[in-house]
């Protein structure tokens, strides 16, 4: 299974929904980078993604985006294939 990295905060309902969806698709481990605790990580996230909201999700080397993007990938039937990649 591909590595999943998620920039998040403690009080983000969309982060919780993203985590729930990923776990429902078999993801057992999500590397969470808490941008509410570490301002440098928020800056890193903003520079990498050009977005300021959380969650921001990477699956392997692929930038997925936020929860809406993740959900759209799942509805399109493309999330499982992305999760299966070992890149």
Describe this structure in words.
The N and C termini lie close together (9 Å). This protein has a single domain (4-84), classed as Glutaredoxin, CATH 3.40.30.10. A four-stranded mixed sheet has the order 2-1-3-4, sandwiched between helices. The chain has helices at 13-24, 39-49, 67-75, 79-84; strands at residues 4-8, 30-34, 56-59, 62-65. The mean pLDDT is 96. The longest helix is centred in the first third of the chain and has 12 residues, at 13-24. It has 87 residues and is α+β, with helices and mostly antiparallel strands.
Annotation, overall tally of beta strands = 4
CATH class: Alpha Beta
Report strand %: 15-25%
Termini, distance in Å? Answer: 9 Å
The CATH topology assignment is Glutaredoxin
Overall structural class, as computed from helix and strand content, comes to alpha+beta
Count of discrete alpha- or pi-helical segments spanning 4 or more residues: 4
Morphology: globular
The number of domains: 1
Order of helices and strands: EHEHEEHH
Q: What is the CATH superfamily classification?
A: Glutaredoxin
Helix and strand arrangement:
Blueprint: E1 4-8, H1 13-24, E2 30-34, H2 39-49, E3 56-59, E4 62-65, H3 67-75, H4 79-84
Parallel strand pairs: 1-2
Antiparallel strand pairs: 1-3, 3-4
Label this structure with key terms:
87 residues; alpha+beta; globular; 4-stranded mixed beta sheet; 4 helices
Short description:
The chain is of the alpha+beta class and 87 residues long.
């Amino acid at each position: 299974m591909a590595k999943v990295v998620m920039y998040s905060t403690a009080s983000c309902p969309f982060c919780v929904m993203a985590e729930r969806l990923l776990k429902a698709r078999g993801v057992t481990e999500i590397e969470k980078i808490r941008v509410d605790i570490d301002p440098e990580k928020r800056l890193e996230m903003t520079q990498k993604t050009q977005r300021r909201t959380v969650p921001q999700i990477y699956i392997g080397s692929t930038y997925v985006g936020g929860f809406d993007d993740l959900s759209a990938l799942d509805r399109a039937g493309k999330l499982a294939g992305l999760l299966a990649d070992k890149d």
